[in-house]
Structure formats: structure tokens, C-alpha cells
Amino acid sequence: MTLACITAELKQTLCPGRIQQVTPVDEHALGFEVYAGGARHPLLVALHPNSARVHTVSY
């Protein structure tokens, strides 16, 4: 259920969207700049063994 909620929230914010930039954050994480709905949305995808996560980022 948690994954379904996360997917629905990201889909609402980022779809349809286009990845503008990909930035390596560290060994296990990537930062994406997604352009959707007339705005840029930073997205962090981290695959750390003990703290995997995906979320939008606010400046």
C-alpha cells in the first residue's frame, strides 16, 4: 500500500514529464530534474542498502 501511495503521488506531480538532467549524488543515489506541468521538480532516487528512498526535493 505504501508503494502504491508513493507511486500515485509521484505520478500526479511528475507525469507527463521529461527528465532534463541527471546528477550523481553519491555512490548509491541519483538526482533528477523533471520538467512537468510548466515547472521543474527535483527528484532524489537513493538505493542505499539501509535507506532506499525516492522523493521530490524542495529548495
UniProtKB/TrEMBL annotation:
Q: What lineage is this protein's organism placed in?
A: Bacteria, Bacillati, Chloroflexota, Candidatus Thermofontia, Candidatus Thermofonsia Clade 3
Q: What is this protein called?
A: Uncharacterized protein
Q: Which Gene3D superfamilies match?
A: ibrinogen binding protein from staphylococcus aureus domain
